[in-house]
Amino acid sequence: MAWLILVGAGLLEAVWAVALGASRNFRRRRPTVVFAIAMPASLVGLAVAMDSLPTGTAYAVWVGIGASMTVLWAMLTRQEAASAARIALLMLLVASVIGLKVVS
């Protein structure tokens, strides 16, 4: 159950990161509200997951999910270029996150 909460928290990290960028320095209301809700929810999910998972592993998985989903979103929305090298490195990041789960 902790892993499921951690994955949800990681996805919420990507949501707040994208909303933060879209808020235009907190000048746009809707992305600012999304940020203000998603960020604490993400941190609460991380904290709950850390009750039963090692801190280092939980944090690395949380960051890995958030970072990879944020980059994937940016590539899908064409805000960042997608190249073979970037996609390969993103896959390596995801593989590393999976590896951390396997060995813990």
Automatic annotation (TrEMBL):
The keyword Membrane applies. GO terms for biological process: response to antibiotic. It is found in: Cell membrane. GO terms for cellular component: plasma membrane. Keywords: Antibiotic resistance, Cell membrane, Membrane, Transmembrane, Transmembrane helix, Transport. It holds the Pfam family Multi_Drug_Res. Gene3D superfamilies: 1.10.3730.20. Its main location: membrane. InterPro entries: EmrE-like, Small_drug/metabolite_transptr, Small_multidrug_res. The keyword Ion transport does not apply. GO terms for molecular function: transmembrane transporter activity. It is a multi-pass membrane protein. Belongs to the drug/metabolite transporter (DMT) superfamily. Small multidrug resistance (SMR) (TC 2.A.7.1) family. Mmr subfamily. This is QacE family quaternary ammonium compound efflux SMR transporter. It comes from Mycolicibacterium duvalii.
